Amino acid sequence: MALIVVFIFQSPSRKLVTMALDRVKRGQGPIVLKTFAGVIFLVMMATVYYALALRRRLIRDGEASATDQILMANYWLQIFLLGTSLFLGLTIDRLHYCFRELSVRRKHSLAAASEDIKALEQERTKLQEKIMKLQTQLQNRDNETNLLKSQLLKASEEALQLTIQLEQKNKEASSAEANALALRKQSEGFLLEYDRLLEENQILRRKLFSENKKDM
């Protein structure tokens, strides 16, 4: 009964009792225990047989002496004690088996849980490494983006300067074209004036030549 109480309530002694029963059940221990249980069962059945035989005799005789009553009570007490012993032994055996299986499964569960924890730790480490790589790549991309922005800003400034220079060149070209047109018009005027003066010169030469002929 004390062993059952020890198994039911969790205490430091339960582990010791479990270890002791494990040692008892090693080797020839199970055979000895089964033999002992079989002997007790046979003794109990023999006692039951004697008790029933005594009861039948008492019923047949119709009278029960004090010795028969004491003997009957002794038989029933032996049957009760032997049956209780077998029941308690079976209960202890089943409790020990259950707690041993529970301990084994707990160990397996703890081993599997520790393996799962290790696997999760490895996965977390891998994820952290991937996150670090992604952060490094993102930082590199940000640096490249900033560099490209600075280059684009510089190119925009250069394009603006070139646009200003192009406008200036266009203005200078427009003014040069206007000057060339004015010079062309002026040269055309000079040519017309030259042609007019040339005609007048020819006319004067003709008049002078005709007057010279008259004088002669």
Number of helical elements: 4
The end-to-end distance, rounded to whole angstroms, is 183 Å
**Rg of Cα set:** 65 Å
On the 0 to 100 scale, the average pLDDT is 80
Tally the beta strands.
Answer: 0
Percentage of residues in strands: under 5%
Quaternary form: single chain
Structural class: mainly alpha
Main β sheet profile: none
**What pattern of helices and strands is seen along the backbone?**
HHHH
Poorly predicted ranges: none
Anisotropy-based shape:
rod-shaped
The share of residues in helices is over 70%
Summarize the structure.
The chain is mainly alpha-helical. It has helices at 2-8, 12-24, 29-61, 66-215.
Question: Would you spell out the secondary-structure blueprint of this structure?
Answer:
Elements: H1 2-8, H2 12-24, H3 29-61, H4 66-215
Helix pairs in contact: 1-4, 3-4
Please explain how this structure is put together.
- The protein has helices at residues 2-8, 12-24, 29-61, 66-215.
- It contains four helices and no strands.
- The protein starts with a helix and ends with a helix.
- The mean pLDDT is 80.
- The longest helix has 150 residues, at 66-215.
- It is mainly alpha-helical and 216 residues long.
Q: What keywords describe this structure?
A:
216 residues, mainly alpha
